[in-house]
Structures are given as structure tokens and as C-alpha cells.
Amino acid sequence: MNYYTGAWKKYVTFSGRARRKEYWMFVLINLIAAIIASIIDNILGTSFISPLYGLAVLLPSLAILSRRLHDTDRSAWWILIALIPIIGQIVLIIFAIFDSQPGQNKYGPNPKEGIPSGQPVQ
Fold first, then answer.
1. pLDDT tens track for 54-92
2. Cα–Cα distance between 56 and 99 in angstroms, integer?
């Protein structure tokens, strides 16, 4: 849960790097929250809770994806490849799966270095 709240603390921070675990834990918890919002919409017979949640999480999702791409030494402009149907999303998933570039790159120091295992990046 610390990874999810950590992403919200960096709500619109598009600089720096995000570890693979940090990104995928955010995606997992975000998916669960979106499913819960959809279930609540269905129970209440409304259609605004799920889209409202999606809108609220849009900027943090873009920010953490940007930092994840930086961790693999790619520009955040690669997010625009998602505009290509199917292939663009597959490319972004593959980029997010890649391991961090070791050492420092032009986006900052490697977030894995110097952090004990199991500790979230703050």
C-alpha cells in the first residue's frame, strides 16, 4: 500500500525514476480500486463514480509511468506511443517490464541502490 500512497504523494512529479516494483504495485492497487468503484456504481445504479476515479488517477498514472520510463533510460514522450491502437500499449507494457538501468542516468540515480529490500521508495 505504501507504493500506492507514495505515487499519490508524487501526484504530478514527472521527473526522477520509479522502480519496477513501485510501478506495478501502483498498477495492481489502482486496478483493484477501479473494480471496486465499478462495483459501487453498479450497486448504486450510478455511472459517475468509476469515471470520476479514472479522472482522479489520470495524472498520478501518467507521472509514475513517466518515472518508470525514465528508470529504463527512455523519455516520457514514449507515453504517446499508446495512441497507436494495441501495438502502442504492448510496447509500453514491455518497456515497463524492463529492469532498471544500473547506476545513474540522465534522469537521476538508480532508486534500487542503497534501499533495503522490501522498503518502498519515498
1. 999 999 999 999 999 999 999 999 999 999 999 999 999
2. 28
